[in-house]
Design a protein that fits this description.
Ubiquitin-like (UB roll); about 350 residues; elongated; about 20% strand; 8 helices; binds FE2/S2 (inorganic) cluster
């Protein structure tokens, strides 16, 4: 363990901890745009700068390892001015169309502009002029809003192992896109969308729907496969309009394309929400109560067992149930019905 002092507070941290991580342990707020604790530090945005005694100039706290007896200052007039200028420079080449931007209310750059009270553009100059790209079904790209933090590139590489996007060109011409500037052709997991701090990447199906205002958040579990990822449903007027995942969830905020974008079935009018029973032979399926449906199933199963024996019955369980439910399901078939004809659809 090493001991260092940050803003007059002393803390002990394991070797290898960065100054930013140590400061966060002390609940000291340092602004960041390109940092995510789930990815390797990158040092692109320069907002996390701090002053360290004995260092000739401010350094990025996200990439500087804490050292024994270090004395760190995270807030000073100089740091405030430098951070403010960095944000101003980012905004000088940004569309600043927060009124109509899908990310408004959920945008780190917008929040920083507010916190640093940036109302004017001191740096007039050329603006980027990229078209909005949305030829795929899920992800919308607005390169004019990109701050080159590289979070999308790193998550695609470090977490997904896909590397579908990367940097092209240099300086003012720099941008992030798939090889040869083609349209995206990846797994569409949307990890890049979830981590983008501005409106540069967004879910195409979110367009035109409420942003943050009045949106209800409900934690839930994804039902697509046996992984059971934690998700958060964003709903408005009794409709689910977006799905996200928290960085603190067991899936660390990551989801697959189905979990993140395949939620429209929830709002479908023809979705089955109650059991249906065909009361007469050849008749129509009619809504029934769960008690009625379960007692019908019990009667039919008992009838088959009495007539043909327990092995005439079989059960197929679902990966969408919990482990506990599947455990009870096989118990029901093995112990109550008396057959080993029981299987489960989870194969991966
Ligand atoms: S968070 Fe450290 S440079 Fe961006």
């Amino acid at each position: 363990m090493i001991s260092l002092t940050i803003d007059d507070k002393t803390i002990e941290v394991p070797e290898g901890t960065t100054v930013l991580e140590a400061a966060r342990k002390l609940d000291i707020d340092i602004p960041t745009l390109c940092y995510d604790s789930r990815l390797k530090p990158y040092g692109a945005c320069r907002l996390c700068i701090v002053e360290i005694a004995g260092f000739p100039k401010p350094v990025t706290s996200c990439t500087t390892p804490a050292a024994a007896n270090m004395v760190v200052k995270t807030n000073s007039d100089l740091l405030y001015r430098l951070r403010r200028t960095t944000i101003e420079l980012l905004l000088s080449d940004h569309p600043n169309d927060c009124m109509v931007c899908i990310k408004s209310g959920d945008c780190t750059l917008q929040e920083l502009a507010y916190l640093y009270d940036i109302r004017e553009n001191r740096f007039q100059g050329e603006m980027r002029d990229h078209n909005r790209i949305d030829e795929n079904p899920f992800i919308m790209r607005e390169q004019n809003k990109c701050v080159m933090c590289g979070l999308c590139v790193r998550v695609c590489d470090e977490v997904e192992g896909v590397g579908a996007i990367g940097y092209v060109n240099r300086g003012f011409e720099s941008k992030i896109c798939p090889p040869f500037e083609r349209e995206l052709n990846c797994e569409f997991c949307g990890q890049c969308v979830s981590i983008c701090p501005t409106g540069a990447l967004s879910g195409k199906m979110w367009a035109g729907l409420p942003r943050q205002e009045g949106v209800k958040l409900t934690d839930s579990t994804c039902t697509y496969c046996g992984c059971g990822c934690n998700i958060t449903l964003h709903s408005h007027a009794d409709k689910v309009i977006r799905v996200s995942a928290k960085a603190t969830s067991h899936n660390r905020g990551w989801l697959c394309v189905k979990g993140r974008f395949g939620f429209d079935f929830i709002n479908r009018g023809d979705r089955l929400t109650t059991p249906l029973i065909r009361r007469e032979k050849g008749g129509k399926l009619e809504p029934a109560t769960w008690d009625e449906a379960l007692s019908l199933i019990t009667t039919k199963m008992n009838g088959i067992k009495e007539k043909h024996g327990p092995d005439a019955l079989g059960g197929l369980a679902s990966a969408r149930c919990t482990n506990e439910e599947n455990y009870l399901f096989q118990k029901l078939f093995r112990k109550v019905i008396g057959t080993n004809n029981v299987d489960h659809c989870a194969r991966y």
